[in-house]
Design goal:
By secondary structure, the protein is of the alpha/beta class. 28% of the residues lie in helices and 23% in strands. The chain has two domains: 4-11 and 243-352, Beta Barrel (Lyase, Ornithine Decarboxylase, Chain A, domain 1); 16-232, TIM Barrel (Alpha-Beta Barrel).
Length: 360
């Protein structure tokens, strides 16, 4: 029986009680509001966790890259959504191979991308589902809502493709602002009215994010959600009001390696261990020291984490191990080969991060 304090560091820990509670809460919410749950695997990048999500009723899985789709096929999902424009023959060839095994749906925001998918589907003798991505305010990918209908009509003309609906990501809304949710609902409602006016009814209206997760039922026409971070949560989710601190399942175990300067200590985890993301709320630091929340994890080199102890509630000794809750857990998971599932201070599980580094 391995205790947490027996682990070598740095080590990514997941509190299994909290993770299981997070998974169950969202599965129950989706069921209560008749929302199709297709969680994004970008956070956990694990076949094991994907299987648990499917076992709790998820209708399928969401990935960002073709490489992630190849890995997540191991969870045996009935439906895989690639929520990212797939451009380029090498990726399309690989994706076509997956479409011969399970249902593959792709988010697209250009006729060029749709034509490439169509040609690949015809050549491989498969079909791709298509969701037209529309930009609802983030300013990243997605056509303007006013252009979504025209693109959908063009896609319906292409062989090997099945237009299934629309998708959006409201990542610009990072708080629980009801007015912003109402504005988003109006945008989606008006978009769906334009489709209905010409006799088109999307099978899938896919959207949502972890910060807005529990507001999803308030968005007109939304019938599928794709949260990712919710499985573990992080300090940015807390800052946005999407969860409480006690809902954060992930922490990094690190060792104090130096006290060379008064009022400061160094731990054995830097930018190769933690995300360099700052808090979306503008708060200081790269994470929260669980043993002393007043300490400020203010700076990182590749292997060194600098922690200011001026306002820390206690002192620390060289060799002591501490736990730090990260600001952005998705990036942190991608930096670690293994994850340690813990319960009551004991390591119960160790799993591999199979989709780590799958960027193509």
């Amino acid at each position: 029986m391995t205790q947490i304090q027996d682990l070598d560091t740095p080590a990514l820990l997941i509190d299994l009680d909290i993770m299981e509670r997070n998974l169950r809460r969202v599965a129950d919410y989706a069921a209560a509001h008749n929302l199709r749950l297709r969680p994004h695997t970008k956070t956990h990048k694990s076949i094991l966790i994907a299987r648990r999500q499917l076992g709790l009723g998820a209708a399928g899985l969401t990935v960002a890259k073709t490489g992630e789709a190849e890995v997540m096929l191991g969870a045996e999902p009935r439906d895989l959504l690639v929520a990212f424009p797939v451009i380029g023959e090498p990726k399309l060839r690989r994706l076509s191979s997956l479409a011969a095994i399970t249902r593959i749906t792709v988010a697209i925001d250009s006729l060029y991308g749709a034509q490439q998918l169509s040609a690949a589907a015809v050549a491989a003798g498969v079909r791709f589902g298509i969701l037209v991505e529309t930009d609802v305010g983030l300013g990243r990918v997605g056509v303007a809502p006013s252009d979504a209908l025209d693109l959908s009509r063009e896609i319906q003309k292409l062989p090997g493709l099945e237009w299934r609906g629309i998708t959006f990501y409201p990542g610009h809304i990072k708080d629980q602002n009801e007015a912003k949710v109402a504005e988003l609902s109006q945008v989606i409602g008006s978009l769906l009215e334009s489709f209905e006016a010409v006799g088109l009814k999307p099978e899938i209206v896919s959207g949502g994010s972890t910060p807005l997760l529990f507001h999803s039922h308030k968005v007109q026409g939304l019938n599928e959600i794709r949260p990712g971070t919710y499985v573990f949560n992080d300090l940015n989710t807390v800052a946005g009001g999407g969860c409480a601190l006690e809902d954060c399942a992930a922490s990094v175990l690190a060792t104090v390696i130096s006290h060379a300067e008064p009022g400061r200590m160094i731990v054995d985890g830097g930018s190769k261990t933690f995300s360099s993301d700052r808090l979306s709320s503008g708060g200081p630091g790269h994470g929260r020291v669980m043993e002393a929340p007043g300490a400020v994890f203010h700076k990182m080199n590749e292997e060194h984490g600098f922690i200011d102890l001026e306002r820390a509630e206690r002192t620390f000794q060289i060799g002591e191990k501490i736990r730090i809750i990260p600001n952005h857990v998705c990036v942190v998971v991608n930096l670690h080969e293994y994850v340690y599932g813990v319960r009551n201070g004991v390591v119960e599980e160790v799993w591999n991060v199979e989709a780590r580094g799958k960027l193509q």
